[in-house]
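Hey, resending since the last one bounced:
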Amino acid sequence: MPDTLSNLKVLVTRPAHQAENLIRLLGQEGAIAVPLPLLQISAVDEKHDGFHTIKQHIMDLDLFQHVIFISPNAANYGGEWIDQYWPQLPYKVNWYAIGQKTAQALNNYGIDAYHSPLGYDSEALLACPDLQQISGERVLIIRGVGGRPTLGDELSARGAEVVYAELYERHCPKYENADIVKSLSPAPGVILISSGEGLNNLNLLVQQAGLSIDSLKGCQIIVPSERVKDTASNMGFINITTATGPDDQAVLDTLKQ
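The structure tokens again:
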């Protein structure tokens, strides 16, 4: 079967540790995958102001009725923390994951977490029946520093006591201007965006390199959600497609369509 994406330049902007398989799949389809990670993920360490709060929340894990992991990064960092303090998982804790990939990551740590079949964002998880009547119950949300407030705000409005364990930070990677120009010139045929934060970082890097975001606004851009689609539209992108899912195969299938 001939390559369907032959010689198509595709900008892959996921964090480096999450992009390898997608780059491989694109290569198998004949595409020219150009990696330009727009987020750098780093674990919170003992120097961070919130470190001891995180440690206390993890040690008190059995005091929570619900524990929610918002991303594969949250699952991996959270799984490492829990392994350190809980050789056996606490009883009577309801585990949740936002998205199938997050649930799969938790399986590696022996955590069987529910994920919504309705989607892979906070809004989908909030429809879970077990999270409707939770007044007076304690919820721990495991996420990165400065995550979206939607999930916690809505659970608090339902009467839950919500606290956060923010285990990692997201930064805009540092690049030499020449490397940015090399990745974006000529302009890619398709840009794969994994988050609104990444899209904003793309804008920052383009400006840093002395380029104009206008040169990219005609590119096909594939985004993970309607929320990020709105962000892209507000930035002036005109050819925007929402992927059918967040996993590598879904992104590839959307691209081939």
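The chain has a mean pLDDT of 94.

Sorry for the duplicate.
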